[in-house]
Design a protein that fits this description.
The protein is built from 11 helices and 10 strands. With 282 residues, the chain is an alpha/beta fold. The chain has one domain: Spore Coat Polysaccharide Biosynthesis Protein SpsA, Chain A (Alpha-Beta Complex). It has a 6-stranded mixed sheet with strand order 3-2-1-4-9-6, with helices on both faces. A two-stranded antiparallel sheet has the order 5-10.
């Protein structure tokens, strides 16, 4: 595992403060806190939530995100997620080494050595989802960016977890390009979108990353994100959403629920992969 100090970054608004609380507790349990610095951006936390988080997790540096300095589509309620590449670039401007973005609903489960080793070897860490880029990025956006048809057929990269070695100029340039594209509401949040699920920041990240994967300039890990996959990562769990009013003592039960749900989901997808004709007509 790389010995460079890691910069971990997350963020939350009032609706996700309990998910963030759960993430930070898990980081303590798995000793990710010993690997580097942790930074959290306040995306609209209630004052009492911010106070409670700062009091409980004194090892975290909390930052305000100045939404007034950005166009209206950056506001969380707009649903564009344009703030994510912006704050990642903000952190990249002050760090030189591994930078890991974690959505607040992520739970570390074991050592992140494989992720950090991949970043050390290849400069980035992005996981695949199951849908194609064409299913997750509006065709007008893909046309604007000049994305070839063979790249559009590739599986999207997710933005739930993203790793960058900010000491590498090519990786920093990728972050800057992502943040620059997010400044345009027509690209990150087209209205109306011509597909059912345009994935905003994730769509733009995929559109930037996948051509480089095709060219061999970016190497993806073999595992998928742990959603709808029979071969997911095992060292963390994603999308463990928690209601804001869930008591802290209930966290073990929340984790048990998601463990059971994801275990069954992954088993079902492994079975489907082993028997691809199962359920089809003879």
């Amino acid at each position: 595992m790389s010995t460079k100090p890691v910069t971990f970054v997350s963020g939350a608004n009032a609706g996700f403060w309990r998910a963030l609380y759960q993430l930070l507790r898990a980081a303590e349990r798995q000793k990710w806190t010993q690997l580097g610095d942790w930074h959290v951006f306040d995306l609209g936390l209630a004052p009492e939530q911010r106070v409670r988080l700062e009091a409980r997790f004194g090892w975290v540096t909390f930052h305000d995100f100045d939404f007034d300095a950005y166009p209206p589509h950056y506001q969380p309620e707009q649903g564009s997620y344009a703030w994510k590449p912006a704050l990642i670039q903000k952190m990249a401007d002050t760090t030189r080494g591994p930078l890991i973005w974690l959505d607040s609903a992520t739970i570390p489960k074991s050592s992140p050595a494989e992720m950090l080793d991949h970043i050390h070897a290849h400069g980035t860490y992005f996981l695949n989802g199951q849908a194609s880029l064409a299913e997750r990025c509006d065709p007008d956006v893909l046309d604007h960016l000049g994305i070839p048809q063979d790249v559009r057929a590739m599986r999207e990269c997710v933005a739930t977890i993203a790793g960058f070695d900010t000491s590498r100029p090519d990786v920093y340039a990728l972050i800057a390009k992502w943040a620059g594209l997010a400044e345009s509401p027509e690209l990150i949040h087209p209205k109306p979108a011509k597909i059912a699920r345009h994935m905003h920041d994730q769509a733009l990240l995929s559109a930037l990353v996948l051509p480089k994967v095709m060219q061999g300039d970016i190497v993806l890990p073999h595992e998928d994100i742990d959603i709808s996959s029979g071969m997911p990562i095992q060292f963390m769990s994603t999308r463990n959403k928690v209601s804001p009013d869930t008591p802290v003592w209930a966290d073990p039960f929340v984790r048990a629920y998601y463990w059971a749900y994801k275990t069954l989901d992954q088993w079902a997808h492994r079975r489907q992969h082993a028997n691809p004709d199962q359920g089809s007509a003879p």
